[in-house]
């Protein structure tokens, strides 16, 4: 139980991290509100009767300000990549709306989970958007904690399930250049530990925190580690073959 219980509002409670964070916040003694666009998506969760459900969207500033009334900490755990083209602008605009609503409502802190990335490097559209959202919160009048995490290891995590799927079901497949990219994994339970702890930290803080395992691998290395850990047949002989320059031939073979 927390020595400093807070009232928190969780956005993204229907998502992978948010849905696992809510019960842990309750266990820590915090009062929890969740903001969801479609309440039916959480109809079967065991913690439903222990939270206040607010039906709204993050682009409705007035409704968000009302939902944030009396809230100490806003957890911002949403990403709008499903919006398709222009999602970067959509994400930044939604973050701006949330930051202004939090400031108007007197919220003490915003907690955001972004992506781990190297400094001064060219980022993908996805990572660039997460960095921009974090900056919106850090530049707002409200104290912000921006966690930056790489691949989250846990059943149901989109990035982990991709690694699992490729390792288990595709003994022969193209090996695109991105499997050489360096990544740092972190267990979902550790992500949740940091998120829960952020609610009770004394402030102001207003900074980023890189969170991870301190073990840097390539995606290829991560797949090899998973194959070995899962005891997949032929895991020890997993090899990646990359094409020569200007050659279309590439493959992954056990």
Brief overview:
With 254 residues, this protein is α/β, with parallel strands linked by helices. Helix content is 35%, strand content 22%.
Report, as a whole number of angstroms, the end-to-end distance. Answer: 48 Å
Task: Estimate the mean pLDDT confidence.
Answer: 83
Helix fraction, binned, reads 25-40%
Helical segment count: 7
Please summarize the sheet with the most strands: 7 strands, parallel
Give the SSE string: EHEEHEHEHEEHEEEHEEHEE
Q: Structural class, please? A: alpha/beta
Strand order of the largest sheet: 3-2-1-4-5-6-11
Overall body shape: globular
Count of DSSP E strands?
A: 14
Describe, in plain words, how this protein is organized in 3D.
The chain is built from seven helices and 14 strands. The chain has helices at residues 16-27, 61-67, 87-105, 125-138, 158-169, 188-200, 219-230; strands at 7-11, 31-36, 52-55, 73-76, 109-115, 143-149, 152-153, 172-173, 182-184, 186-187, 207-211, 216-218, 239-241, 251-253. Strands 3-2-1-4-5-6-11 form a seven-stranded parallel sheet, with helices on both faces. A three-stranded antiparallel sheet has the order 8-14-13, with no helix packed on it. Strand 1, helix 1 (16-27) and strand 2 form a beta-alpha-beta unit. Helix 1 (16-27) packs across helix 6, helix 2 crosses helix 3 (87-105) and helix 5 packs across helix 7. It is globular. Mean pLDDT is 83; it is low at 245-254.
């Amino acid at each position: 139980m927390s020595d400093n219980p807070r009232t928190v509002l969780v956005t993204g409670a229907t998502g992978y991290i948010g849905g696992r964070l809510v019960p842990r916040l309750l266990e820590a003694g915090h009062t929890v509100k969740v903001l969801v666009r479609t309440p039916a998506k959480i109809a079967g969760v065991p913690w439903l009767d222990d939270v206040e459900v607010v039906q709204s969207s993050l682009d409705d500033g007035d409704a968000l300000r009302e939902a944030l009334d009396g809230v100490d900490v806003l957890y911002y755990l949403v990403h709008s990549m499903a919006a398709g083209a222009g999602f970067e602008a959509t994400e930044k605009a939604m973050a701006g709306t949330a930051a202004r609503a939090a400031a108007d409502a007197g919220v003490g802190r915003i907690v955001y989970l972004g992506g781990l990335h190297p400094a001064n490097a060219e980022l993908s559209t996805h990572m660039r958007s997460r960095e921009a959202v974090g900056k919106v919160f850090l530049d707002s009048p409200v104290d912000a904690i921006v966690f930056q995490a790489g691949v989250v290891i846990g059943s149901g995590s989109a990035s982990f399930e991709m690694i699992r799927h490729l390792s288990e079901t595709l003994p022969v497949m193209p090996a695109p250049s991105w499997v050489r990219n360096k990544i740092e994994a972190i267990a979902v339970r550790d992500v949740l530990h940091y998120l829960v702890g952020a609610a009770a930290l004394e402030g102001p803080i207003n900074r980023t925190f890189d969170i991870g395992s301190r073990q840097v691998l390539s995606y290829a290395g991560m797949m090899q580690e998973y194959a070995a850990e899962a005891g997949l047949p032929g895991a020890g002989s997993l090899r990646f073959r990359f094409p020569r320059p200007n050659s279309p031939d590439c493959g992954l073979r056990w």
